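Translate structure to sequence.
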């Protein structure tokens, strides 16, 4: 049986990823930082394990990795991310929260990738996906969202770099943009979460060596860094 570990699985894209992988008959290790917010996740049917994980805590990441050290994880999907200050312009930027954004969107994902790489290398598929964003692309001309955009841009660089190192272990590392997905804080986005996740799963199903170190959207189209 194949196994996927998904961070930030209690809502939005992470929840839908958990649901669709369970429907495919996979074992899903779903992480969330607060079990009180995971009631819907707990109701999903299938081979589901729920773990608590705060992405800002390197200690918790290390502990979780220790717990699964002798396991094999086919796909590590680093999905959890923070974006409270969508569109905030320079003077409205909560500068004192910058560290929180980097901890959650860049440093935690880096630590997840390197701590779980041995378990991914020990699997059949050997894939790490980090959820990037078009908002973190240097070619994006939008204004504002300094905290989110800089932390995602940093994530992109980190993952592209890691892709080279982890390739020695046979791992394919991808950065993905899920599309502009409709959700509670993005009600005006056009893309239903079901379609985004279906597209990403299809892409991952067909992942090969050529995709290592690439930045792709949910349809498999290359994104500008
Ligand atoms: N929606 C879009 O259009 C879009 C576009 C580009 C990229 N993305 C990226 O896709 C990913 C999922 O986004 P989404 O739209 O599904 O957002 P969402 O509904 O807000 O879900 C975000 C998930 O991340 C978790 N999370 C946030 N901070 C965390 C922390 N410090 N530790 C552990 N978990 C944490 C949240 O947990 P809580 O419920 O506890 O807060 C939640 O489970 C994010 O990385 C986002 O940046 C989304």
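Result:
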């Amino acid at each position: 049986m194949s196994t996927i570990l998904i961070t930030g699985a209690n809502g939005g894209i992470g929840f839908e990823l958990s649901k669709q992988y369970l429907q495919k008959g996979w074992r899903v290790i779903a992480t969330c930082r607060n079990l009180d917010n995971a009631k819907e996740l707990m109701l999903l049917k299938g081979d589901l394990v729920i773990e608590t994980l705060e992405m800002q805590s390197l200690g918790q990441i290390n502990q979780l990795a220790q717990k699964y050290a002798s396991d094999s994880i086919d796909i590590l999907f680093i999905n959890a991310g923070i974006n409270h200050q969508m569109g905030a312009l320079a003077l409205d930027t909560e500068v004192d929260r910058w560290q929180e954004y980097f901890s959650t969107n860049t440093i935690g994902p880096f630590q997840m990738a390197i701590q779980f790489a041995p378990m991914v290398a020990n699997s059949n598929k050997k894939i790490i996906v980090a959820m990037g964003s078009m908002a973190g692309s240097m070619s994006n001309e939008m204004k504002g969202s300094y905290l989110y955009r800089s932390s995602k841009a940093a994530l992109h660089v980190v993952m592209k770099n890691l892709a080279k190192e982890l390739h020695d272990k046979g791992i394919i590392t991808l950065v993905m943009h899920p599309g502009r997905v409709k959700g509670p804080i993005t009600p005006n986005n056009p893309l239903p979460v079901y379609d985004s996740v279906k597209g990403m799963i299809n892409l991952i199903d067909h992942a090969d060596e050529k995709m290592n170190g690439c930045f792709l959207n949910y349809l498999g189209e290359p994104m500008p860094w």
